[in-house]
Design goal:
The protein is of the alpha+beta class. The protein has a domain of 91 residues: Nucleic acid-binding proteins (OB fold (Dihydrolipoamide Acetyltransferase, E2P), Beta Barrel), CATH 2.40.50. The chain contains 3 helices and 6 strands, in the order H-H-H-E-E-E-E-E-E. The chain has a 5-stranded mixed β-barrel with strand order 1-2-3-5-4. Strand 4 and strand 5 form a beta hairpin. The radius of gyration is 26 Å and the shape is elongated. The chain starts with 12 loop residues before the first helix and ends with a strand. 16% of the residues are buried.
């Protein structure tokens, strides 16, 4: 006996609807454009975007928008620390970046602060002033962020 089963003319409509609902069905041109835009960006641009996204929801002022000589709350990733002599006593300078700019927190009379290491997130509060293209904050209150 010969079986005469019918073969569907195209893909199962319920499967197509499921794939489209998940967003897995994409135009190859769109995928290639997104990939090309990601590959064309420099590491610095990717790092800036990562930092901006990380500190966006903390209720802090972006470093590039910090008003001079007014109390500000800034957050960023620690990029560098160094001990610099100022007026005969050591001062710890901590440079942070949030992807929009850089700020330097200066802790006078300190050589080290526990837990303040490169790569950690830090929130500082104090009065900032512009200096050499960055925001300088003297003896700010600080909080380490996870």
């Amino acid at each position: 006996m010969v079986s005469t089963a019918t073969v569907p003319a195209g893909p199962d409509p319920s499967l197509v609807a499921d794939v489209a609902a998940r967003g897995a069905c994409c135009d190859s041109g769109t995928v290639l454009r997104k990939l090309r835009s990601k590959l064309a960006r420099t590491m610095e641009e990717l790092d800036e975007d990562r930092l901006q996204a990380r500190y966006h929801g903390l209720g802090v002022t972006p470093i590039s928008e910090a008003p001079p000589r007014t109390p500000v709350r800034l957050a960023g990733e620690i990029q560098a620390t160094q001990v610099v002599p100022r007026a005969g006593s050591p001062s710890l300078e901590v440079t942070i970046s949030d992807g929009t700019g850089r700020a330097v927190a200066v802790f006078t009379g300190r050589r080290r602060l526990g837990g303040v290491d490169c790569g950690r997130s830090l929130v500082i509060e104090g009065v900032g002033r512009p200096e050499r293209g960055r925001v300088l904050v003297l003896n700010p209150a600080y909080q380490l962020v996870e």
